[in-house]
Amino acid sequence: MSIAQISTPPNSDHSIAITALQAEFGKQISTNPTVREQHGHTMTWLANQPPDAVLTAHDKHDVARAVKICNQYQMPVIAFGIGSSLEGQLNAPYGGLCIDMHALDAILQVHNEDLTVTVQPGVTREQLNHYLRDTGLFFPIDPGANASIGGMVATRASGTNAVRYGTMKDVVLALEVVTASGDIIRTGTRAKKSAAGYDLTHLMIGSEGTLGIVTEVTLKLFGISESIGSGLCHFTTIEDACQAVMLTIQMCLPIARIELLDALQIKACNKYANLNLLETPTLFVEFHGTKASVREQAQTFTEIIEEFGGTDFVWDTNEAERKRLWQARHNAYHASSALRPEASALSTDACVPISRLAECVSATARDVEESGMIGPIVGHVGDGNFHVLLLVDTNNPEEVATADGIISRLAMRAIEMDGTCTGEHGIGQGKQKYMAQEHGNAVAMMQAIKSALDPKNILNPGKIWPQPLV
Fold first, then answer.
1. 96 — phi, psi (to 5°)?
2. CA atoms of 465 and 215, how far apart (whole Å)
3. DSSP code string of 177-223
């Protein structure tokens, strides 16, 4: 299959389009340099590429009208949630309009009996769970950051609960989407399944804003368990910890969360949050169920980790202690960054089949150590996904080259193990060069879909794959 030709938006003056947008939206449009820079990429070492203008959308009709204008003038459009993307998804390499979706933050409908909720894309996961707190239901996808639901759809987010509850692709039932022409379409229904036509919902999930802009999301919810038990245990080596994870999953233990923090990550958490955890590879775990089933799961897990030298396993159902424990895990990014505050933080991830987890994580840890870099490892290892946070002096070309080598070797290592170069961060700008290796000729099919749905290439251009010039 030949590579589909995707037109590249000209890197030209968008003043006529901006004038038209200002006439339509007035003070909702900002061209202030500071505001524009705030809406470029901010969470990694990739250079900030700000848009030409920022629109604060108030409703889906604002989004549709803005996209129509941008389509008319062939001006790029990038949707913005809260800015927590990690691979340059929010940059504007060709300039254009950033549509800030944070004001679309309404929770529209909760259907308790059906375990579903419909929200606007600016709703954050913490906001949603706070709203649901009295219903006995919760939304389980937890990528760590308090991300917006729209952004989580765009990047096919995952997180700490994925081992039991799945990822965004598993919990999204339906979407409302603004297309490249500015039309509003719906994909899917509140029914749990459908055999009617193409699965456009899952086509949009993970498309990083390149096929449409999400303006409404219908999600599955889950019941809060009668009992929740959390704990941690220590290991001598990363390989031992990973082997324990592998056996836990292979024995079909219905564990809700199982997170790996290496010794350096634990050290960072201790310093950042005044903790006194043993600085050795550590598993954070959580069990959901009845009181009896949680006790049973904990006992089975105790027997598993003993086979691999796991020690000091303690667990508790106390809610305050559980929140304290997981707050340490959620602070991992900022705790790691504080190890070398003058450096830039580069977070990368990979995902492999669970049977290759120990091999991949151990090889990556050796690679980081032998390279002389500071790079704590943390992972949602229950589904084979882990992260490395490299702290890099971007003014030092040797360090930049070393970090790039680590990232490239990790991506290729994961792909060679029949895994993926990214389990949840997405491709954006940062991982485009691995797409051909991972997907082969299927990249051409992806590009053909992009060309068909967005013939002028205005929706988040320059992302997912390098742009061929025409």
1. 115, -160
2. 25
3. EE-TTS-EEEE--SSS---SS--HHHHHTTSTTSS-EEEEEEEE-EE
Q: What is the pTM of this model?
A: 0.93
Tens-of-pLDDT digits for all 470 residues of the chain? 344 456 656 556 899 999 999 999 999 999 999 999 999 976 777 889 999 999 999 999 999 999 999 999 999 999 999 998 889 999 999 999 999 999 999 999 999 999 999 999 999 999 999 999 999 999 999 987 889 999 999 999 998 899 999 999 999 999 999 999 999 999 999 999 999 999 999 999 999 999 999 999 999 999 999 999 999 999 999 999 999 999 999 999 999 999 999 999 999 999 998 888 999 999 999 999 999 999 999 999 999 999 999 999 989 888 888 888 788 788 888 899 999 999 988 899 999 999 999 999 999 999 999 999 999 999 899 999 999 999 999 899 999 999 999 999 999 999 999 999 999 999 999 999 999 999 999 999 999 999 999 999 999 999 998 765 33
Interior/surface letters 10-49, b for 16+ CB within 10 angstroms, e for the rest: eeeebeebbebbbeebeebbbeeeebbebbbbebbbbeeb
DSSP class of 5: P
351 phi/psi in degrees, rounded to 5: -145, 135
Cα distances (angstroms) measured from residue 78 to each of 89, 151, 434, 462: 9, 12, 23, 11
Only one residue has tokens 């509850």, namely: 165
User: Looking at the DSSP assignment, which residues form a beta bridge with residue 213?
Assistant: 178
1 burial type by CB count under 10 A (0-12 exposed, 13-18 middle, 19+ buried): exposed
Q: Which amino acid is at 364?
A: T
